[in-house]
Specification:
This protein has 330 residues and is α/β, with parallel strands linked by helices. The protein has 3 domains: 2-17 and 149-232, no CATH class; 22-145, no CATH class; 244-322, Winged helix-like DNA-binding domain superfamily/Winged helix DNA-binding domain (Arc Repressor Mutant, subunit A, Orthogonal Bundle). 51% of the residues lie in helices and 12% in strands. Helix 11 (257-267) crosses helix 13. 32% of the residues are buried.
């Protein structure tokens, strides 16, 4: 659990980032490639970009695995373009790298780094330049073709959060930002893989929407960085395909908008009835009824795990979302 402690001054300084952060999206998109999850939402994109991934991108993946500690210096807080962030990567001071290595040793004690990481530990400019160039090459090949759509989706999400702010203040914003969040002033509790306390101490908090982030928010470990909380936006699957809007509208017309939203959320890895109800904007009993209908149609399957019912999508459900012809036994 991540516990973020606010003061009145922190609330006054808390704000949304104006758009997607190139390096955050770059690093987290590599997680989607490494984990091969969220097949409905990111599967088409992953299949398109896999042949184009530059070999040197593996250096970034080695420093930022999808599970465990990722080096904070990979997401410099320049507030500018990818070019500005690449320049910041090249100019990373040695003390910041040493902080990352110390955190890696503490949080990932069993994960060995590649042999070239010694040059990085020593702060050699050549290795930093190689990493920055790898970031630029990966972005150009795998993210740039989709960047306009990514920016539009993030802007739409931010606009929706702004409407929540107008109607109910920060309490309304935090309650809808992610199902794992709980707001009890002065503490915002966030579902997190490790226990951590973040004291803002008058600096405020930057809420950074992310297109490729899934499942739960993430943040930086090193307290020298400005406080930031990266959270997943809500968006439609099939974004990397042509005709996405018509496909989404057709599915909603076929099974209803709420069931369509729930089916997409299940496909994207949201598995509990409570979280699915939050995503769909309905009550728990209503979500349960919709899930029962989807189950009877063999689009989702449900099973009990201790005191919780978990839901997952079937091959037929995935085929329906993708607009494909499923394989059916004779």
């Amino acid at each position: 659990m991540l516990q973020i402690h606010f003061t009145p001054e922190d609330l006054a300084r808390t704000r949304f980032a104006p758009g997607p952060d190139p390096m955050w999206e770059l690093v987290i998109s590599l997680h989607r490639i490494q984990r091969r999850d969220s097949s409905v939402l990111f599967g088409p994109w992953r299949r398109q970009v896999m042949p184009r991934i530059p070999v040197a991108t593996g250096m970034i993946s080695a420093l930022s695995p999808p599970v465990g500690y990722g080096f904070d210096f990979l997401t410099p807080q320049t507030g500018g373009s990818l070019s500005a962030q690449a320049e910041a990567l090249r100019a990373t001071p040695q003390w910041r790298l040493r902080n990352d290595f110390a955190a890696h040793g503490m949080l990932n004690p069993r994960r060995r780094l590649p042999s070239w990481s010694k040059d990085l530990f020593d702060g050699r400019s050549s290795i930093l330049t190689t990493i920055a160039d790898a970031a630029l090459a990966y972005f150009a090949a795998c993210l740039e073709p989709y960047w306009r759509h990514i920016c539009n989706e993030v802007r739409h999400d931010t606009a929706r959060r702004a409407r929540a702010m107008v109607s109910g203040g920060w309490s309304e914003v935090f309650s809808k930002l992610h199902p794992s969040m709980r707001w009890d002033y002065p503490v915002l509790s966030v579902g997190y893989p490790v226990d951590k306390v973040m004291r803002l101490e008058g600096r405020g908090l930057v809420l950074q929407p992310s297109f490729f982030c899934r499942y739960g928010p993430t943040s930086l470990v090193d307290p020298v960085f400005d406080p930031v909380l990266v959270y997943p936006i809500e968006h439609q699957p099939g974004w990397a395909l042509d005709g996405t809007r018509d496909q989404c509208r057709s599915l909603s017309a076929l099974i209803g908008r709420t069931r369509s939203d729930i089916l997409r959320a299940v496909a994207d890895g949201i598995s509990t009835t409570t979280d699915l109800a939050v995503v769909a904007g309905v009550t728990h009993p209503t979500a349960s009824r919709h899930l029962a209908v989807l189950g009877e149609a063999a689009l989702v399957i449900s099973h009990r795990h201790r005191n919780t019912t978990l839901h997952s999508i079937t091959d037929l459900g995935t085929a329906l979302l993708n607009g494909a012809q499923p394989w059916l036994p004779a």
